């Protein structure tokens, strides 16, 4: 890669040219890994980005799901703003786009929906121009747009990723192991919780004992995930930085957590900023854990669906789509 982050000169796409971008959902934090640990899951959004006639500022959005009916097109849409970052980076004039989205990752549920939009905009715009930017540059842009790396990094790369800004000011990504005997169960309620509201609930400062406790928990959790040791996972899925302040924002959340643990989960934590919850358990307990979590929420008047999801290892991908003439 060249020093300016470009791999090749960008090419101007034709009107009607289109690409398909598949982006996985993510679960972030995993308890003690606040703003640095995230995993891609086998659930994803599919974006078809098509170049339209007209200049920059025209962005049309078609959502193929009732869950995203509140989402709108226009120049402020996150997909389009992310595409604009790519165009600015390579010195290309903005172009009109349509995004047709098959939405499987529900918005405002703590499963990285905004990260899928960012990655789709970056990767799609880059693909339409012949990939002038490498993945490392796309990763840098994605973190800058999102403001933290825990969702966008695994969304782009796949797997379980620990990301930190090093003393050299570079973002360093460590791909961590996830043992096949560790099963993820996600309970997704019908209620929503914005990341902004979840962040406002947190204190601006934390105590040293809480920081030290989280460092220890994160070490135990990563070792448990690497080896499949349920005892280490159970001891590692404890957080003092964000969860104590966010549980009160999730209707019935602590009761759902107790239900998951009672059904055999090693631990149950808030997925991202919530309100979805993530339980980790042995594969033979996954169905029981999923049923217990859904039932607990329903008993408290909250509709919910559960997903038993493998780790998604490949990250985001794109392919050419049929051109519109």
TrEMBL record:
Catalytic activity reads: L-homoserine + ATP = O-phospho-L-homoserine + ADP + H(+)
Which Pfam families does the record cross-reference, listed alphabetically? GHMP_kinases_C, GHMP_kinases_N
Query: Which biological pathway?
Result: Amino-acid biosynthesis; L-threonine biosynthesis; L-threonine from L-aspartate: step 4/5
- Supply the InterPro entries for this chain: GHMP_kinase_C_dom, GHMP_kinase_C_sf, GHMP_kinase_N_dom, GHMP_knse_ATP-bd_CS, Homoserine_kinase, Ribosomal_Su5_D2-typ_SF, Ribsml_uS5_D2-typ_fold_subgr
The subcellular location is: Cytoplasm
Protein family (similarity comment) = Belongs to the GHMP kinase family. Homoserine kinase subfamily.
* Entry function: Catalyzes the ATP-dependent phosphorylation of L-homoserine to L-homoserine phosphate.
**UniProt cross-references to NCBIfam families, sorted A to Z:** thrB
Name of the protein this chain belongs to = Homoserine kinase
Q: Which organism is it from?
A: Synechococcus lacustris str. Tous
């Amino acid at each position: 890669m060249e020093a300016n982050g470009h791999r090749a000169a960008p090419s101007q796409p034709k009107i009607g040219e289109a690409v398909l971008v598949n982006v996985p959902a993510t679960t972030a934090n995993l308890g003690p890994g606040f703003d640095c640990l995230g995993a891609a899951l086998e659930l994803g959004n599919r974006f078809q980005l098509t170049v339209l006639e007209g200049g920059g500022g025209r962005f049309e959005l078609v959502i193929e799901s009732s869950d995203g009916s509140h989402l709108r097109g226009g120049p402020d849409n996150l997909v389009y703003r992310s595409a604009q970052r790519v165009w600015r980076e390579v010195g290309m004039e903005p172009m009109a786009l349509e995004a047709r989205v098959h939405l499987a990752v529900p918005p405002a549920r703590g499963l990285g929906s905004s990260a899928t939009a960012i990655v789709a905009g970056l990767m799609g715009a880059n693909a339409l121009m012949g990939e002038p930017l490498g993945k490392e540059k796309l990763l840098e842009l994605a973190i800058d747009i999102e403001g933290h790396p825990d969702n966008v990094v695994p969304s782009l790369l796949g797997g379980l990723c620990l990301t930190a800004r090093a003393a050299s000011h570079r973002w360093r990504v460590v791909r961590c192991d996830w043992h096949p005997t560790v099963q993820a169960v996600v309970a997704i309620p019908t209620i929503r919780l914005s990341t902004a509201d979840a962040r406002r609930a947190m204190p601006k400062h934390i105590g040293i004992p809480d920081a030290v406790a989280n460092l220890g928990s994160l070490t135990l959790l990563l070792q448990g995930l690497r080896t499949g040791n349920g005892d280490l996972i159970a001891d590692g899925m404890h957080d003092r930085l964000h969860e104590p302040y966010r549980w009160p924002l999730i209707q019935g959340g602590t009761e759902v957590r107790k239900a998951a643990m009672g059904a055999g989960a090693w631990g149950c934590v808030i997925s991202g900023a919530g309100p979805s919850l993530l339980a980790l358990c042995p594969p033979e307990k996954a169905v029981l854990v999923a049923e217990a979590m859904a039932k607990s929420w329903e008993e408290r008047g909250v509709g919910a669906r559960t997903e038993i999801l493998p780790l998604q290892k490949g990250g985001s991908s794109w392919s050419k789509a049929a051109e519109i003439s």
